[in-house]
Amino acid sequence: MDAHTPPPPSLELVSLTKQYGPDAVAVDAIDLRVAPGSYCCLLGPSGCGKSSTLRMVAGHESVSSGDILLGGRNITDLPAASRGTAMMFQSYALFPHLSALDNVAFSLKMKGVGKTERTARAAELLERVSLGHLAHRKPGELSGGQQQRVALARALIMQPQVLLLDEPLSALDPFLRVQMRAELRRWQQELGLTFVHVTHSQEEAMALADLMVVMNHGRIEQAGHPREVFNRPASEFVARFMGGHNVLDTPAGRVAIRSDRMAATPTPPAAGDRPHLPGQVTDVEYQGTYVLLGVKVDNPASQQVSVSLSEAAFLNQPIAHGQHIHLSWLPADAHPLAA
User: Are 72 and 244 a contacting pair, CB within 8 Å?
Assistant: First the structure.
């Protein structure tokens, strides 16, 4: 490979398909390239195929057709232990009778690594995840966040090229989820590893991902940086699933408009190039830094839309439930959607 040739993607999926029966296609010929050292989040509703994709990459699910390449090497038919991947499960799957240290060292023990070496490597990883002082506690004596760190250290001890995470934060309470989210991102950057993380949380994916992959019915609807996906959704599904958007039928076609890019005024906007729609307020929700309005617009579809107003804007011009208002937006803020 010369200096001008880019390195192969850390992970590449080529027409990857998982079929459970003639009419049950869980993953439908998807193509995906994940750059080395990046954080990729597979995102979508239940049943979209994200977990089946992760399990095929891990070697825990057979591939119906297509290929999985890791660092340019085809691993499609290799056993899980020979792939260069490690999985961090949603349940953490720690052995309750073993200490944190022995849980982390367990896979090295199965590979025949001597006790002194495996204990030293396990202790080093526990220090990295700030649990060295709890090395001899059993899982039942650890908090949920501490158990997650043990599970992460156990996955990392095999020195994988790619770490696979199956909804690792879903079992945590909201405050701890945010804290552990930041720690996952920090560890990923410090280690320089490729992480592939399955989640159903848009907020989680946007906070973590370099590459966000939105899936629906076994297919990839859109893949890109979270900012690109949020600001330029490729389809109505992506716009609605990501939230914070309104999908409207206009003379120019179907468009997505961010809720915070819509203005709400008691009177129509002054003559100009701002499209506008009249409507009636159906909901007013105070959210702290902003106020969320629900509005039923007067168009042929009587669509329900949401408008996010800053707290200052709302206090400057309060809007009440049942009030008739006018919504308007800049043409540049209306993103055309694929038919």
Answer: no
Q: Which residues of 208-231 are buried (b: 16+ CB within 10 A; e: fewer)?
A: bbbbbbbbbebebbbbbebeebbb
Write the pLDDT tens digit of every residue in 285-338: 999 999 999 999 987 777 899 999 999 999 999 999 999 999 999 999 999 998
Using CA atoms, how far residue 95 sits from 85, 149, 194, 253, 324, in Å, is 21, 14, 26, 56, 61
Planar angle of CA 218, 54, 185, nearest 5 degrees: 115
Dihedral-angle region of residue 117 (phi above 0 means left; psi in -120 to 50 means alpha; beta otherwise): alpha
Residue ranges of E strands in 64-120: 65-70, 73-74, 85-88
Contact 283, 312 (CB under 8 A): no
**Residues 157-167, buried b or exposed e (16+ Cβ, 10 A)?**
beebbbbbbbb
Interatomic CA distance for residues 253 and 237, integer angstroms: 16
pTM above 0.85, yes or no: yes
As given in the structure block, the two tokens for residue 238 are 């992506």
Tokens read off for 334: 């209306």
CB atoms within 10 A of CB 296: 14
- The conformation of residue 9, written as its DSSP 8-state character, comes to P
**Rounded Cα–Cα distance for residues 143 and 134 (Å):** 11
Q: How many CB atoms lie within 10 A of CB 287?
A: 10
| Beta-strand pair 39-43/194-199 | parallel
Per-residue pLDDT tens digits for 11-53: 999 999 999 888 899 999 999 999 999 999 999 999 999 999 9
CA distance 322 to 16: 51
